[in-house]
Amino acid sequence: MDDERIRRAAAADVPAVAAVTDAAYRPYIERIGVVPQPMEADHAADVAAGKVFVTEAEPGAPVVGLVVLEALGDHLFLDSIAVHPDAHGTGVGRRLLRFVDAQARALGLPEVRLYTNALMTENQKIYPKYGYEVVERRVDGPYDRVHYRKRLL
């Protein structure tokens, strides 16, 4: 799969966006004790706002991964990255993260920011491998989050 196969989601993709998000985050519910925020997102509104980008393993195949992005003045916020469990280990996540960097650069933004739940320990091993550094750990409502940034410029 090439980065060219990552495209902005269309209204017809909303069910797939919801399904991939649910499949990716559902295993964390028991561990963190709450429903992960991406599962409660208004996927239709995010797609309509142009925030969601999806990828398929091959053209016309089902969506296997997605990112939700928002340009926020001085950085690109990576609100969610989700890879269907059936596609784990195939490079989908790596290509999506590379796409996020390219999007930030195309927008002239100097960094990408994201956060993950402190109990999603797998993520805390992944993000530093791709150049992200921990900025802080902060509790936001029911969520204990580790905030990251990646400087690009």
The multimeric state of the shown protein is single chain
How can the largest sheet be summarized?
A: 7 strands, mixed
Task: Detail the poorly predicted runs.
Answer: none
Distance between the termini: 27 Å
Counted by DSSP, the helix tally is 5
How would you describe the shape? globular
Determine Rg (CA atoms, Å).
Answer: 15 Å
Write out the strand line-up for the largest beta sheet, numbering strands in chain order: 1-2-3-4-5-7-6
DSSP, total strands: 7
Structural class: alpha+beta
Order of helices and strands: EHHHEEEHEHEE
Estimated helix fraction: 25-40%
Describe the protein in words:
There is one protein chain. 29% of the residues lie in helices and 32% in strands. It has helices spanning 14-25, 28-32, 43-48, 92-106, 121-126; strands at 6-8, 52-56, 63-71, 76-83, 111-117, 133-140, 143-151. The chain has a seven-stranded mixed sheet with strand order 1-2-3-4-5-7-6. The chain is globular. The mean pLDDT is 95.
